[in-house]
Each structure stands twice: as structure tokens, then as C-alpha cells.
């Protein structure tokens, strides 16, 4: 699934579960998805929390095929900044 499709799904989730904080999903060479001021963009901007992972792991996370805590503990997901913001991702993935 391209990051544009993933961003669209997150945008639908954001409409149902607004996020007041700023968050960036960094998928390395595949690009980024930033959630800032209630909107989703593909711009690489500074945010309060950055979650780094491969695009494949992001897809697995969204489909429920990857446990977020296990992924974090095994280094498949790295969080920089306010971890409490990253914990709100699950609701956005259900959009």
C-alpha cells in the first residue's frame, strides 16, 4: 500500500478521533506522514513526537498484524519525543 493510501486512512481516523498534538510517522526512504493542526500531510516537518518504522511494519501495525508494544521492545518501532502521543495512533488506524 503506498504511503498516500496510508495517509488517507489515517486522515479518516483523524476525522473521527482528533489529535491535538503533532506527530510524524517516518518510514525512511519511503517518506513521512505528518499529523499537524488536525491535518495529514506528506511534508517532513518538526513534530512533538516522531515514530520511525519501515513502511512494511506500518502496514502490519495498521492491519493489527504487529503488536505495537512488541514492535517497540524489539526495535521495529522507534519513538522520539513524547511517547504518550505515539500511544494514540491505534485509534487513528481504525479510520
Tags for this model:
single chain; 95 residues; alpha+beta; five-stranded mixed beta sheet; 5 strands
What does the oligomeric state look like here?
single chain
Continuous helix count:
5
User: Strand tally, please?
Assistant: 5
Radius of gyration: 12 Å
Low-pLDDT runs of 5+ residues are: none
Q: What gap, in angstroms, lies between the N and C termini?
A: 16 Å
- Cross-sheet strand order for the largest sheet: 3-2-1-4-5
The helix content, as a percent range, equals: 40-55%
Approximate shape: globular
Mean pLDDT: 92
Strand content: 15-25%
Structural class: alpha+beta
Largest sheet: 5 strands, mixed
Written as H for each helix and E for each strand, in order along the chain, the element string is HEEEEHHEHH
Topology:
Blueprint: H1 3-16, E1 23-26, E2 32-36, E3 39-41, E4 49-52, H2 55-63, H3 68-73, E5 78-81, H4 83-86, H5 89-93
Parallel strand pairs: 1-4
Antiparallel strand pairs: 1-2, 2-3, 4-5
Describe the structure.
- By secondary structure, this protein is an alpha+beta fold.
- A hairpin with a 5-residue loop joins strand 1 and strand 2.
- The protein has 5 helices and 5 strands, in the order αββββααβαα.
- The chain has a 5-stranded mixed β-sheet with strand order 3-2-1-4-5.
Short summary of the structure?
The protein is α+β, with helices and mostly antiparallel strands.
Amino acid at each position: 500500500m503506498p504511503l498516500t493510501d496510508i495517509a488517507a486512512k489515517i486522515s479518516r481516523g483523524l476525522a473521527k478521533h482528533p489529535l491535538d498534538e503533532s506527530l510524524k510517522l517516518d518510514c525512511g526512504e519511503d517518506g513521512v506522514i505528518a499529523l499537524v493542526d488536525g491535518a495529514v500531510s506528506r511534508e517532513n516537518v518538526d513534530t512533538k513526537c516522531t515514530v520511525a518504522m519501515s513502511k512494511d511494519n506500518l502496514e502490519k501495525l495498521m492491519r493489527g498484524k504487529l503488536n505495537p508494544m512488541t514492535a517497540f521492545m524489539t526495535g521495529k518501532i522507534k519513538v522520539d519525543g513524547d511517547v504518550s502521543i505515539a500511544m494514540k495512533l491505534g485509534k487513528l488506524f481504525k479510520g
